[in-house]
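DM between two lab members

TW: hey, do you still have the cysteine desulfurase entry open?
JB: yeah, one sec
JB: this one, 377 aa:
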Amino acid sequence: MQVYLDHAATTRVFDEVAREVIKVFTEQFGNASSLHSHGEQAKQIYESARSKIAKHINVLPEEIFFTSGGTEADNIAIIGFLRANFPEGGDLITTEIEHPAVLEVMKYLEKLGYSVTYLKPSSEGYIKASDFKKAIKKNTVLASIMWVNNETGVIQPIDEISKIAREHGIVFHSDAVQALGKLKIDATLVDMLSASGHKFYAPKGTGFLYVNKSIKIHPIMFGGGHERGLRSGTENVPGAHGMATALQIIEKNYDLWQKKMLKFREKILQTIEKIPNHHINGENTIVSHINVSFKGINGETLATALDMRGISVSTASACSSHHGSSQSYVLKAMELDEWIVTGAVRITLGYDNEEEEIDYFNQVLLEEVERLRKLQE
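TW: and the structure you got?
JB:
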């Protein structure tokens, strides 16, 4: 049996989304910037997608800008805002547990003369709003804090941090790549928000950035002036339509699917409880995420053993693998014991998982942990 439990890395495109995207590719293929009827048809699909996505996160259509994914959206939000408003420098606040799409941007900005404060998470994986408040300086102009952590699934206190940021006139950006489609999101809590289609059953290479209409932002890439001048490049009509379709499907089935995932989560946690010397990493997580370590077993070794039996899980995030380390910088930032950091595996459920898959995973997990521990004796 093949079991996919790495939905935080990417998701399978919904069948209906795939059909809709192919239809646009092959039947409604016009350039949305063209003035003829083919172009106008494509433009209507494109703008309809923008409106549907905006409604999903409670913002205005003109506040949605389509991108190629979360990384591009993060870069435009942070660099574009600073170019437009504080080109000479300023203080920024982020966290030690952000996705590399934010952390690498911050490192780049430090080289340009900006100062950056990196907030440390608690041992449970969340950022304390009180720590955020303490970090504010007279020249703090921007904060970027993820909505949900990609490795642990911990939900960050966005509402509390938002209130503090607004009290101090700080523009607040959130990378919501792991949140959208898994939580009901009100993007008006923040000033800018990034999302990526392939995390919520839409095609890869799609994403969007929400920018509150009161925020001044400059492009970081130049060309034909698409997306009201912020993001040049021929409009990806099939991709935008795919994202909107996926979110509509999730909206329709959200409560039922969340209930199903909660049931599967509980079954997995009950199995984990049967295994001595384990540690669940992170508290107050989204339903889909379980990050767990088993003492005496390397996370990569366990992930490989599960893979050999048809089960896909991960250790650190997929994007972290490009930085030459499979160990989690997120768990290190949480200051967990070494065996927890080296032994962690990330199990992430999806809306398309079935109960027999979970039963098979539980059986194999028990067997492989026992087998690997015996090898250590």
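TW: got it. The chain has a mean pLDDT of 94. The chain has two domains: 3-10+254-375, 15-248.
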